[in-house]
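Q: Could you fold this chain for me?
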Amino acid sequence: MGEPMTVWETGLAMRLIIASITGIGLFAVIIFWPAGRLDWIAGWLHFGIVTASLSASLVYLRRVNPEVIEHRLRLGKGTKTWDIVWSVIFAPLFLSIYVVAGFDAVRFEWSGMSPWLWPLGLALWLPGYALFAWAMGVNPFFEKTVRIQTERGHRVIDTGPYAFIRHPGYLGFLGWGLSTPLFLGSWWAFIPALLSILAMVVRTALEDQTLRNELAGYKDYAGKVRYRLIPGLW
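A: Sure. Below is the predicted structure, expressed as structure tokens.
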């Protein structure tokens, strides 16, 4: 554990602070610019829940797996070309959930959603993000792009949630996509949300095939842990 701590003490913390402040600022813009107003209570509640969850996960990762924080701040060498293409498509697709929600729920009021569905959004968010953070906590190779991390001794991780499902981080992230329209009160936002989920399913399939072909021991692991993304289904 000495190396990650040394890296942290010599610059990682500053990079993380800059990235966090920039990300939080952009996140606020993408929520409130489409709405056209700042007095959107649902927007602030969602903003607070997401930023609090991200902060809690950083504290958790700092304790159990600081190495993954460093590597998620950069693009690893050997990232698959298909994953770069996927990321370029997925990022605006996912952010469009917020654009559509702001236009729908506040600016133009295209549809109406009962505020009583807000707790359902919370019920999807909390276990989903907890699973996502848990997956990062036990997997030092949980980078933001798909690649075989040969220089880091990439190996199969089969502990924690990986003992039950092969891509638990992606399953957890699906909770973010599904909960956002409910948090923000927009039926129309489910269109980009469901498209984002479909895109995540595609990435899961492509990554799983990459690991089968290129990561030693993954085929045996896949034989023991049957399901890629949805337990009991796929």
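A (continued): Residues 2 and 98 are 40 Å apart (CA to CA).
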